[in-house]
Amino acid sequence: MKNKTILAALVAVALGVASNATAVVTFDDDLTHGVIFGSGNANGNFTIDRNQGVELGLRAKIPYSGVTNSNGDGSYSYTTADIDTGGRASWNFDWAINTNESGASGFVLSDLTYLLEFDYDPSAGVDYHGFGTALGLSGDPVTPTATIPFFDHALGNNATVQGPGNPNVAADATAYAAAMGTDNVAQNSWRGQWMQTIPAASFDPYGPGTYNIRLSAFDGSGATVASTEIEVHINGGAPVPEPATMTLLGLGIAGLGLRARKRKNA
Predict the structure, then answer these.
(1) Which residue has the higher pLDDT, 95 or 66?
(2) What is the DSSP letter of 25?
């Protein structure tokens, strides 16, 4: 009976951890203040984490068509036929950062640091690498460096609207630095095919597999403020079990061990 009580308590704790870990993540969601990159990109089907007034969003899609093929659980599935349309290759992932989504945090882009990670291994296991690390670049897709003094991200605030030609893209490093100190929104759309530069020559954006992408934001102390993650399944790539699910599975196995031990002792 004592062992059963301990097991029940462990399962309850695991369920509580799982609930807290996923409570702020929403699927097939809209960015609160809309999409501002490009001129034909619609809102919707983002996997979003909102925490401490910060909103991070990720989604996968077919470029130009805008089809997301969302599975409603943070994963997006495509076949070769989906990807190879009109000679426009591969798949995109869209990312969005809003450091003051609720109007309560007061953060601008330069108040936080960011990390974009990519698992380019097609296996079901997750092995993250910071974006661009193989090229000697930071994994931070927003904060400029000596190597990359500015990016072509769409920048703005909660009132910025989408417009032809991306009028909200910084023209040079000076304009980008100024925007980092005043703006709270950064968005962009990147091609899965471009990840071939990240390091493995074996990465095939058309090949069957499961590819994971994670975007996180950190405060000045290095603590995680928000983090969101998606899976891209190509040609039947299998989903990866959630960490909480793996925890519960481990507890279940431990429970079976306790029962077996009890029977042996009896």
Answers:
(1) 95
(2) E
pTM: 0.78
- Tokens 């990390």: give the residue: 115
Contacts of 14 (CB under 8 A, 6+ apart): 244, 247, 248, 251
Q: Is the dihedral of CA 125, 128, 132, 135 positive or negative?
A: negative
Rounded Cα distance between 219 and 161, Å, is 27
CA dist 136 and 214 (Å) reads 19
The torsion of the CA quartet 128, 134, 137, 140, rounded to 10 degrees, works out to -10
Q: How far apart are CA 31 and CA 160, in angstroms?
A: 13
The 10s digit of each residue's pLDDT in 89-140 is 578 899 999 999 999 999 999 999 999 988 877 888 887 776 665 455 568 9
